[in-house]
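Data deposition worksheet. Section B asks for the primary sequence of the deposited chain exactly as it was used as input, without tags or linkers unless they were present during the calculation. Section C holds the resulting structure in token form. Section D is free text for depositor observations; keep each observation to a single sentence. Incomplete worksheets are returned to the depositor.
Section A, Depositor: J.P.
Section B:
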Amino acid sequence: MSDDFQECINANPALLKFTKPSLSWSEKLLLLAISHPSISVQTADLLENALKTSSKLSDLQICQILGNGGFLERVKTLPDEFIALAKANLKDKLAQESYDDLNELKVLCALIEREAIDFEEMRVILADLKLRNKSLSEEARMNILLVLQIMAEEKEIWDEVPKLALSIFTCSTSVLDREIHVLIEKLFSSSNLIYRLRPYIFGTSTNSESIDFSRILTADHSRVFLENLDRDRMQKTIKKFGMKDNKEVYDPAFMIFAICDLVRVDAQVDPKLLISSGTFSFCIMALTLECEKLRSVALESLFRIKDHLIIYRWSNFNLIASFFLFLEEILEPENPLKSSVAVYFSRAVHLMTKPDHEMYQTTMASVVHMGGFTDSVPDFIDYFWAQNNTKRKRLWIVNFMEEMLIQSTDVSSLYHYHALDFVLSALNTDDPRLYESILSLVERMIEIDPFVMKKKGVLSTIKARQKLKNEKLQIEERILNAVIS
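Section C:
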């Protein structure tokens, strides 16, 4: 690359054009940065290597290099001609109906840092982008986050900034979503906008035509939030609670605050929807979190849910009263709730509206009559060695054991009454569903403490089953070949 900036521009005029190029705008800006005489040789080499085909980087990775290299500071030294042309072409492109490329958001960051565009113009451009109506890639969400972080420094924060932040937020525990959540928290702490964001619809759910956003400040908006939750994703969150760096689970750090506000006293809440959406169970599982602040909000949410449930006309009112009485007796607000206890209660909640479920009677009877919890797996003896409906009860308790394994300290509960040994001995079962459930439990155990499974000789048992299965397949194949021939 030439050390002379003007020579580089003359030799590469395409760098200043907004037509669809083979290079993204982040890469164009990298080229401009490399060519600038003020850049150090070491940084120039780093940036130039990033553009080589053999080490092609994503826009997200390039953005990280730009940030680490202090690129936005160097943008201030770029020629005025570049800034003016970039600004004009950007506005022209936004005016095109076919516009669908969000890479230019990096240029917006540069223009703001160069003070070539003010916040008012920035608002117009963001409004033109119509981000809330787009399905965005991770790179695009990163670009938007960079812009919103700059917008958040404005003295009087634009009302749309938090809403735009929610539109790129998927409420997962991924690294990018956690960064967006930091921005949302900052916006909430610096303004009183949180209540204006009800019903806290995030991501692509904001595109739903069934949502009347003109009524989001009314008391019945909790239904909108609950109905837009992904049920499968919520169930996965409950079963894998506390999982980090995962795009497929909900982040408690955001969800618990939204839920707490949505079940406040003056809100109209459908108790059955609270249960069927998994929201009630989610609040119970949140009591297992190490963060005392989040636990306290989860507890307040449960008390509010209790008030809504009490005034609802249940066919079995005593069951609700017994459930909360039992829960309150075993709670120690200063300590996280044991995983086994939390899973037990979350499962009981799930069955409350399903009186025809095969496990309803036994589970509800335990809620009413159980005196307390020990360190063992609740109801293990009664379920694993049940005389009636043995297969289904065994499946229930094995799946329960898998769900209660959230952290390494939970493993000790499996040793009481030799629960783990009894379950592993059933690996030789002929019941395919039970075998798969036990394998799922083993897989979860390996994630938490692989040494335990090696010590128990589980791998040898599985290998022996595989060998036997292969032998059976070979015999079946010989029989089929003999018949065909």
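Section D:
The radius of gyration is 29 Å.
The chain is about 60% helix and 0% strand.
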